Amino acid sequence: MNNLLNKELRLVIHPLYYLTALFGALILIPNWVYFVALMYVLFIAFPNIFMNAKAQNDTGFSVLMPVRKRDVVKARVMSMSILEILQVLVAALFVAIGASINPKGNFLIDANLAFLGCALVMYGLFNLFFFPMFYKTGHKVGLPLLVSLSIAFVFSSIIEVLVVMVPAVAKVLDGNTPSAMISQIPVLAAGAALFVGLTWLAYRLAAKNFEKIDL
Amino acid sequence: MEILSVQHLSKHYPKFDLKDVSFSLEQGFIMGFIGSNGAGKTTTLKSMLGLVHKDGGTVSMLGMDFDQHELEIKQHLGFMFGGVDYYAKTKIRTITEVVRRFYREWDDSIYNKYMKRFALDESKRPSELSSGMRIKYSLVLALSHHAKLLLLDEPTSGLDPVARDNLLELFQEFIEDGERSILFSTHITSDLEKCADYITYIENGRIIESRTKDDLLQAYRLVKGTSEQLAPVQARLIANKTHAYGFSGLIKTADLESADHLEIEEPTLEDIMIYYAKKEGLNE
User: Fold this and answer.
1) DSSP one-letter code for B158
2) Does the pLDDT value for residue B247 go beyond 60?
3) Which of 3.40.50.10320, 3.30.70.330, 3.40.50.300, 2.60.120.260 would CATH assign to domain B2-212?
4) Which chain A residues are Cβ-neighbours of B90 within 8 angstroms?
C-alpha cells in the first residue's frame, strides 16, 4: 500500500497541486461564500490529476505491479483525501487569522470550526459520488466530476441557507468568537468522522466497480 | 516443473470469444505465442493476469493458482505490454525508484549492470527513448527483481532487425540457467524460428496448436501441384491457394499419401499461420 502511495506522490500528483491548498487564504475575504474557497481543490486538483494520470497510462502501469486491483483504487482515494485534508488544515490556519482580523463575522456562515466540519462533510459527499462513478470506467472524468461537484455545491448551499434562515442552526454553526469556536468542536469532530466514513464507503464502492471492468 | 499452465480459459465478448484456451510451459524454455491481429493473444495474456475477467478456466504460475496467490506470483513475474508507454515525461530514475520498492527481491547491482550494458541513461525520459530502448528498459526492470517468468506482449514489434536480433539473444540468455521461462506473443514468426522452443498458435480465439516448434513444423507440409492434382487432395488440405499453374496448400504430414505425387516442402511458421487464417476466413 505504501508503495502505491509513494507512486501516487512521486509519479501522479504534481507538487503544484499541493499549492491549491493555499486557496484557503480566500477565507480572509470579508463577507463571502467561504465554501467556495475550499472547492478549488475540487475544481483544479481533481480534474487535472485524473486526466494527467489517464494521459500517463497510470492505471496500466499500476495494475502490473504486485498489487491487487482494489489497492490501486485505495491508493488514489487516499492520496486525493490527503489533498482534501491538507486543504482543511491550511484553511484552519486562515480561519484562525480571519477570526482575529474580521471579528464581526460573515453574513453567511462564519469561517469557524463548524464551517471546517461542514467542509469535511462536503468533501466526504464529493468523494462518495466521484470515486465510485469514476471507477466504473477508470478513465472517464467528466460526468463523475459534474455530478459530485453538483452534490458538493447543493450541500454547501443548504448549509448556507440554513445558517441564514434557521436561528437554531445558526446557533450551532455560526459565530467566530473563541467561546463559539469551542462549542463548535463537536461539529468539527462529527464532520471529520463523517468524512472518514463517507470516504471509506467511497473506496469500497469504487473498488467494487473497478474490479468488474476489463482493462 | 511447469512454470505456467493455462487450462480451459474462456472469455466472452459480444463480437469475440476466447474458447477453451489451454497450454503449458516448462521451466527453462521460450514459448512463442502466435496468431494474427485480433486472434486473441493480448486477451489471453490479460485474462491470465486478471486484467480481463475470465469467464472460465484456471491459470497457474510457478505452481500456484493465480487467483489465490496473485501477489506472491506477481513478485516473480516480469511483464511487458507494448513497451514503457507510461509516464512518458518522467525521468527513468524516478520511475525506477518507484518500481523497485514494490519488489522484495529487487537487486540494484543487477539493475546497474544491465542499464550499463544497454547504455540506458537514467536521466532520460521514456519519450526520449527509441522503441528498442524502451523495451530494453522494461526488460531491465524485469531482470532486476529476479523474475522467473516473463510475459511479453509483442516485444519485437516495431524494432529494426538488428534490435530484434539483440533482444532475441537476450531472451536466450535469460533462460540459460534453466529456471526461467518466457512467453511472448508476436506475429513476426521469423523471431520464433530463431529462439522459440515451443509454439502456441491461436486463431479466432481458439488454440490450434501448442507443442515444440520442431514437432509443429514436422506436423505440416507445404504441397504444390497442378490444377488436376488438386481435386483428389483438396479435402485433406487445411487450405489452398490456386494460381495459373496449379495450387499450393498446407496439409498435415499424417494426411500425406505417396500416391499424390505432389511437390512437398517443409513449411515455415508463417506458412502455417497464413493457411490457417485462410481456413478460418472460409468458415466465416
Assistant:
1) T
2) yes
3) 3.40.50.300
4) 11, 56
